[in-house]
C-alpha cells in the first residue's frame, strides 16, 4: 500500500489496477479508510487525495449496473457476478466506511450530531401527515408545525388547528421569518449557536472528499437513465425503474441531512461549489463514460427546448427591439429545440384553432437586466443539475424530501431558491405536459411554499433574479395555449380572445401551483411594492387578466333545450377567483395608507386602458347584445376594488381616478346586464339552458365568490349611478330588465321583448335591484366591523347556524393577510354581540343537534335587514325562511300579530364621495315610475304583486329619508330642455313632487282596451315615460321616419333618444331605433293596432298612498292623520310603533315622514282626508274589485277550514304517535294491547296490525308479537367495580378482561366441568352472559299467516332500506320498528289465570309433592306435541330463530357436542338473559317498582311459553332432578364415592340458585299456579341462604369462625332455631370443619381473607346482599307470569319488600325490631339434616381439591351496571396516541385506525392486512366482543360507527369543539372535548339494545369494515 501511495506521489503513471486491489469482498474497508484518512491528514495530502479519487473511481465506477439494467447487452460487465443490487450495496458500504474514516458508521453519525446547532426543526413531511397551524403565532399564513414541536410549545388560548397535509410541508419551528418566537418549542427556543463547540476539522474531512464523487455518480445515473420519450408520452415505467434503483443512494443522502447542521453545511459546500462541478462533469476527460453521459445531458437539455451556452446556436428571436427583452422563451419553445418557431407556438398549442395565429406578442418590461436568463439554462453546480433532473423525472418524492431537508442551512436556502427561480419556467412547462399533474403540482408547491413564504428570501430573489417578471410571463404563456375567440357582442369581428374553460389546463386546475406561488409572494409588502411600481409588469398583468374578461359566455336558448349541459362554468369561476381575484386581494392588502396612493393610480390607469382596449376589441358601442351574458368581468372588478380602496383607505379624491361620462356609460353596461340576467334566470327565462345556468347564478352570489364578484359589480354600478345623469340611469335599468312597456297607465299593454308570464318577476327584479343599489353600503362608508356585523346578522336571520357554517358563509377577504380572519378577535366579539348560543340538545328521536347560534331579540328588532339577506341568499327559499323567522319573532314578542312586511332599516351614512347616488331618488323618471305603479296597484292591473308595492314604498321612503333640500314650498322654475317633464312633475325633489296632482294622461292602448274614449280635454300629460308634448310631436315623427339612426354620445341626446324609444309611436320607430334587434324580438304586424286614449287621473302620490291605505285596510276613511290628535309626533318622530308591521304600517310611516318634511304636504294630507272621496276607478273595475273581495273572503274561509282540518289531523297524529311510535327510549311507552286483568273477558284479544281484525290467538290461526331477536354481550361486560375502565392512552395502560362478568362465569363453568359430570354441570350454571339472546318487542301483534304474506311482498319490493328480507328482517307494519321474528302468543284465557292465582291453604309439604309430580308428567301439556298444529310449528320455528340469532360458540358448552343438555341449558339461559337485562334497564335494582315501562311491552310471558314447551321435551331423569335433593333427605348411599371412574354430580351448594329456579319453573306445565311458584321459591331460598352462610364462613378467619361456632351452639336450644342465622352458621361451620375446606390456609391464602371485623350488622348485610340478586330476578319473573305490580321502596328496605312480595315472609311478621333475613326461611325438611347432607357433598369434594372447592363457594354476585370505557376529556390525547399506533396483528400503522369502546381493542378499519376468512377486522371484532354489536371510535374521523350484525351506521361524534359542533374527519382540526351527554346517550342505546330503532341510516357492510 505504502509503495503504491509513494509511487502515486511521485506521479508515476501507473495503471489504476496496480494502485489498489479490486474492491472485492476481500478488501478490509475499515483499514483502507483509516489509512486514507491518515494520508489525507498530512499537510501535503495530494497523494492521499489521488489515491482516494482512484478508489472512488473504481467503487463508483461509471460502467454501472444501471446501464446494464437499461441496455441489456452490458449486463455481463455488471459489477462481477453479484448482479445490480449487490454492487450498489457494496458501493454504499464503501462510502459509509470512508466517511467514517475507519471508525464505525453509527459512532460517526453520533459524533456529527453532537455538533448540530439545532436552531430550526425543518422536519419535512409528505402528504397525509398530521401537522398543526397556529394563526396566533404565524407571520406567514402558510406556517406549519410538526406535532412534536406544537405540543412542546405553549399555544394555550391560541387560534390553532390540526390539519392533514395535502401537498406535504416542513416544520417552521425556530424560523423567526415565518413565525413569532413566542411560539417556538422548548427545543428550538435557545439560540444555541453560542454554546456548541466548533467542529473538529478531521471529523468531516473525508466527507468533503467523498461526497462530490458520490453526488456526481448519482447525476450520472440520472443522465443515463433518462431516455427522451418518443411520442409525447413519457415512459413512466422506465423513469420509475431508474428511480427504484436509485432509492438507496437518495435515502443515504437523506440520512446525511438528518445528521444535523455540521453535515448539512458540508453538503451545501459540495452542492454549490462550481469548481467541483466543472472538473467532474465537463466531459472533457479521456473517460469515454463521462463523455457519453455529458452528451446525454446535452440532448436532454435540447429536447426540453433549452440551450446550453457553449453550443453556438442561432437564436430565432424576432421583434427584439432595443429596450425590451424577449419573452421567457425558455419554457415554451417547441419540442424540437430552437426558438425560431416561437411565434407559431408548439404544435400541441395550436389545437386546431388556426385563427389565433395573429396573437399579439407580449412585451416584457425593460427592467429585465440580463435577457439570457430567459432563454438559456446554464448549470454551474451540482445543485442546479440535480434540480434539473428532479424536474425531468417529475419530482420524485425522495428527491424532493432530500432537497427540502437541506433547507435549515441558510446558505443552501438562498442558493436553492435562486436555482428554483432559474428553473421556474422549465418546471411549469414540464407540469403542463405531465400526465400526473396533480401529484406533480403537490410536489412543486411542497417546495415553493417553503421558499416563498419567507419575506426576506422572496425580496432577495425578486431583486436579483427578476422573480416577478418570470412568474407573470410564465402565467401569460400558460394561458396563451388555450385561448379562443370571444363571441361576446360582435361575433364576427371581435378581436378579443379569452381562455377556453373546457381545456384541461383550466378544468383540472393545472395552473394552481403557479398562481399559488404568485399569491404567496404578493403577500410580502416589499415584493408587492415592486410589482405596483413597475408599469411594464402592470401592463402585462392587465393583459393577463383580460384573457378572463368575458370567458364562458352563455347564450340564451330560445327554441329547444340545450342538448349537452357543459359543466365548464365551475372551472371559469375557480379561474377568476384564483388567477385574478386572489392576486388582486393580495395587492389591495398593501394599499392601506395614504402613502400608497401612487400604486392605486397606476393600477387604475392601466386597468382603464385595458378596459378601453377591450371595448374596442369587442366593437362595443352602446347597446349590449341581447340574450347573452358572461359572469366574468375581472377588469371591471379590479377597477372597482381599487376605487373602493382609494376612497376608503387612501383618501384619494374619487373624481381624480374616474374616467369621462362616456366611459362610465360603457362601464355600467355589462355589470347591469349581469344583474338583469340574474332576474331572468330566476324568472325561468333561461330554463332551456339547463341547470348549469342556475348553478352560475348561485355561484356568482355564493359566499366564497360574492366579495370578488357581485359586490364589486354592485359597487361599480353605484359609482356610475352617482356620476351619471339619474334619468338616464333609471331608464337604462328598466330597459335592461325589459319592463319599459309595462310602465303605462293603461290597463292593457303589449310588451315586445318579454312574455307576460315573466313580466311580474322581472319588474320585481328591477325594483329589488334598485333597492339594493340604493341601500347597500358595503363599499360606501361602512367600517370593516360594521360589514362583518351586517353579514353575520344576514346569515343568522336566514337560519340558526353552527360556528363553522357561519365562518363558511361569511365572505371573508380571500387574502389571508387581510385582517378579518374567521375566528379572529373581531369575529368572536361581533358574534357574541349579535347571537345567543344554543347548546347542543338531544331529541329523544336520536337526532343529535349541534351547538347553534341564533339571533338575539334586539337584532330581530333593530338590525334585521331584508336587503342584505336578498343579496346574500344563494337559494330563494332562504329569503322566505328569514321572513318566516322574523314573523315568528314578532308574534312571540307581541310586537305584531299579522303577516309583517320586510322592515325598513336605517342605513349608515354615505361617504361624501358617493352623495350623488341619492340623486336617483330625486329624478322625475323614477317619480313617474313610482306614480304609475302606485296607480296600477290601486286599479288592480294585472302582473303586479305585493312585492312590487313593497319595493315601491321602500323607494319612496328612501327618497324621503335622503331628501336634499329643505322644505321648498315655492317652486323653482326649471328652464331649458328639462321643461319636457312639466306635464308630469314640476321639480325633481320627491318631497314636493309627492303632492303634485296629475290630471290627465295620454296613453297608447290597444283598440280593444276599455280606456278608449273619444273626447280629449285640453291639458294632458302624455303617457308614463313619454314626456314629449304635443307641440313637439310632429318634429319627432319626422325625425323617426327619416331613418337616420345617428349615434349620440352626449348624455342629453341619449336621454332624448331613450325617451323616444319608450314612446314608440309607430312600429317603424322600432325599426329605426333598434336596427339590430327588433326583428328578433317581435314579428312585425303581429301586434294589434295601438291608438291614443286620454285617461282622467286627478291624483297625486300622496292621494294614491291614502287611497292605498283604505284599500289595504279594507275600510273607507281608514287613514286619520295621527298628528291631529298628538302634536308631539311631529316633534319626536321616531316611534317604535311603526318599526314593524305590514303595508298599512308602511303607508302610515311614509305619510308621517312626508308631513314632517314639509308643511305643505301636511296640509294636503289633511285636505285629502277631509274630502274622503272613494276612489273612482272605471265602473268595470269595481266589479272586478268585488270579485277579488269575494275571492279574498272565500279564500279566508277556505283557509280557516283547512286550519281546522289540519289541527284535527295533527291531534290525531299526535295521539297515534303517543300510542304507537314510541321507540325512542325504553322509558315512556304504551301498554301492550294484551289485556290481562279483566275478568269479564274470557280470552286475550289481539289486534293484527296488517289485516286489522281483532280476535284471540288460536291453534289454527295463531297471533304473534313482532319481536327483534339479537345476540347481546352487554351482561358479560358488567364488572364488580363502579368506576368504568378508562380507554388506554399510553403504552402502559392495558385493559384485561378477566374481571368481567362473562370471564368469571366462563372460568366457573370450566372449573366445574373439570371435576364433575358434564350433564350435571350444564344444569348448575347459566350461560348467555356473552352472546345471550335478547328478545324485545314494540308491542304490536299480527297473524302469523298475515306476516308471511307481508314478508313475501317485501321480498318482491326492490327498494329495500338497509334490511335484508332473506334473513327474515322486516319493519313493524304499524310503527316501522325494526324486527326479525314473530313470537307466537299462547292461546289462553284470563279467567283461568285468575283461578290459578287464588291462594290455597295446602301445606308446603303437599305443594312440594305436587310440584314433583307435575314435573314428572311430560305429557301434561294442553297441546299434545304429536298433533302438529300451526301453533306448535310456529313455536318450533321461532325457537330455531332464537338459536340462530347467536353464534354456535355461545350455545355449545358441553363436552359432548350436540347433547340435549346443551339445548336445555341454552333455553333456560335465554330466559335468564332477558330477566337480567330487564333488571339492568331498571338500573340494577327494583327500588323504583311499578309495572315498569319495559314491562308494558315485554314479551317475557310469551317467551316463557315457547321455552317451556321446548324444555318439557327434555324431561330430566327424576333421579337427577335437583328438586329431590332440595326437598328430601337421601339415605346415605356410598355408590358415588365407590364409583371412582365416573365423575360425581355437582354438589347442590355449587349450583346457581337462579338457574335452578328457571329450570324448575320451565319444567312445570304452563300456565303455572301461583302457590306452586311460591313453593319453589321458598325451597330455593333455603338453599340460597345456606350458600350465603357457607360463603361467609369461608370469607372470615379462623378466630371468627371458632367464636361464631361457639355463640351459635349456645343459642341452638332456643326456640325457632331454624330461623336464626347464628345457629345455622355455627352448624354450617361445624359440619364443614369435618372436611378439609378450612384447612391449609397457608400464608398465600391470607390475601383472600378480608380483614374486616365482622359485626352482627355487617354479617346481616352480607347475607342480604348475597341473596338480593336472586330475589330481584324472582320478583321480576313473578311480575311477568302473574301480572303483579312491583312495590317501590327505598334501597335499604329492598330485601324485606321483595321477600314479602314473594311470600317468603309470613304475613303476620312484625316490622318493629330490625329486620333479619333468616326470618324468611321456611324449611321443607328439618334444617340441620338437610344442611349436613349438603355439606357432606362439599366435604367429599374438598377431600381432594380443597383450593377449587373454596373458590367455587365464594360467588361474587354483586355485579355493577355495565359501562362503556371512560374517554379522556380532550380528543387530542386519543388522536396522538392512536393515529400512529401500530396494529398488533399486522404491525403496520393502519390507514383507518379504530378502537372498540367496549373493550379498548385497537383494530384496522377496512384493513385488508388483518382480514380473516373474508371478514375484515372490525366486523370480526364485533362478533367476538359484542356477539355482532360493535361500537368503534374512528380515530381519524372522531366519529363513532356502530356495527350490528350485517349492517352498520355512522352514529355521530361524542367529541365536540368549543362551539358544540362535531368535526367529522377532523377537517377543521379544532380542539375537541368530550360531550358527556352524548356519550351517555350512546351508552344508554347500547345497554337498552335500541341502536336498531333509534338510528335510521343503516347500510350493509359486506364484512368489509
In short:
The protein has 1905 residues and is an alpha+beta fold.
Key features of this structure:
1905 residues; alpha+beta; three-stranded antiparallel sheet; 29 strands; 48% helix; 6% strand; disordered N terminus
Strand order of the largest sheet: 23-22-24-25-26-29
- Tally of contiguous helical segments: 76
Class by alpha and beta content: alpha+beta
Provide the low-confidence segments as ranges: 1-26, 62-84, 310-374, 815-820, 966-982, 1013-1054, 1064-1087, 1174-1184, 1220-1241, 1389-1396, 1419-1426, 1533-1540, ...
Beta-strand content estimate = 5-15%
Distance between the first and last residues' Cα: 66 Å
> Would you count the extended β strands for me?
29
Mean pLDDT over all positions = 77
Report the radius of gyration as a whole number of Å. Answer: 47 Å
Helix proportion range = 40-55%
Description:
It is a single chain. The chain has a six-stranded antiparallel sheet with strand order 23-22-24-25-26-29. The chain has a three-stranded antiparallel sheet with strand order 3-2-4. It is flat. The longest helix has 42 residues, at 1179-1220. The chain starts with a helix and ends in a 5-residue tail after the last strand. α11 runs parallel beside α18, α29 (597-617) runs antiparallel to α30 (634-648) and α36 (784-798) crosses α38. The chain is 48% helix and 6% strand. With 1905 residues, the chain is of the alpha+beta class.
